[in-house]
């Protein structure tokens, strides 16, 4: 084998333009892909080639081509190739609020183990897991999300019952945090904006949106920072514009959320795609 042949294929990630709370990617990795991290969205995907391995809920999982991955919001996980050949996959990241628009205030569906072979989930993800080069119309995406929400609820075995939590107050808190993500927000402000005491509100927020109010606030800042970085801003300027105290503050949260430093994330996001 020549030195040229021995060189591994470069890792790459390609993204579709996000639409209304949904991010779509297709990626290839060999070896270690992501360190342990967690984000406040559902990560729902399909392995296209190779073995996609990851630690999830105290166990090692292995997804094979054609299987559906469903990682619950705020659950820690990593990612690596299960073989030397690497792995390729597509993934969508869906804000829990979009599923709540369909489910109307029930607890978020949970798929045990993070991997499913259920035909209902495969069919419900077909539209959203098309090639990222295929644009989705807003109504097409909306219909697909509704179908996916119902499929998740059915496959998880979730009974269609409302929880005892206050969904309208949790929704008001989410809207307030979304609008104020560029600055420090206190629990007193959230109490005033929602009319709920802080502890009940935090409990309900996690039930309906899968994470805490502070984690939701940080994720919105990271969304802004990534967008600015892709448009060419320096890491320091992106951190300041997104509402972080400084670049190191952003980097700590970025690594915990995406499993990469900002610099590494930019590197693989701009790598050439190879078949």
TrEMBL record:
Keywords: DNA-binding, Transcription, Transcription regulation. PANTHER family: HTH-TYPE TRANSCRIPTIONAL ACTIVATOR RHAS-RELATED, TRANSCRIPTIONAL REGULATORY PROTEIN. It holds the Pfam family HTH_18. It comes from Cupriavidus malaysiensis. The keyword Methyltransferase does not apply. Residues 171-268 form the HTH araC/xylS-type domain. It comes from the Bacteria. The keyword Transcription regulation applies. This is AraC family transcriptional regulator.
């Amino acid at each position: 084998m020549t030195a040229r042949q021995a060189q591994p294929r470069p890792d790459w990630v390609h993204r579709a333009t996000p639409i209304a709370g949904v991010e779509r990617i297709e990626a290839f990795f060999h070896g270690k892909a992501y360190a342990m991290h967690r984000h406040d969205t559902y990560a729902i995907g399909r392995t296209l080639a190779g073995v996609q391995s990851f630690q999830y809920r105290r166990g090692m999982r292995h997804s094979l081509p054609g299987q559906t991955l469903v990682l619950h919001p705020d659950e820690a996980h990593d990612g690596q190739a299960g073989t030397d050949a690497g792995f390729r996959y597509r993934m969508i990241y869906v804000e829990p609020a979009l599923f709540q628009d369909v489910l109307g205030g029930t607890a978020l569906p949970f798929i045990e183990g993070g991997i499913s072979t259920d035909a209902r989930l495969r069919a419900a993800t077909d539209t959203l897991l098309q090639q990222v080069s295929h644009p989705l119309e807003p109504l097409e995406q909306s219909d697909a999300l509704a179908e996916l929400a119902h499929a998740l609820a059915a496959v998880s075995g979730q009974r269609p019952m409302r929880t005892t939590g206050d969904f309208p107050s949790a929704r008001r808190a989410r809207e307030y945090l979304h609008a104020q993500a560029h600055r420090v927000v206190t629990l007193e402000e959230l109490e005033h904006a929602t009319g709920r005491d802080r502890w009940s509100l935090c409990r309900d927020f996690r039930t309906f949106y899968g994470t805490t109010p502070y984690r939701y606030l940080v994720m919105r800042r990271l969304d802004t920072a990534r967008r600015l970085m892709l448009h060419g801003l320096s890491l320091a300027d992106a951190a300041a514009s997104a509402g972080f105290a400084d670049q190191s503050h952003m980097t700590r949260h970025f690594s915990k959320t995406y499993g990469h430093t900002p610099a590494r994330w930019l590197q693989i996001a701009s790598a050439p795609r190879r078949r």
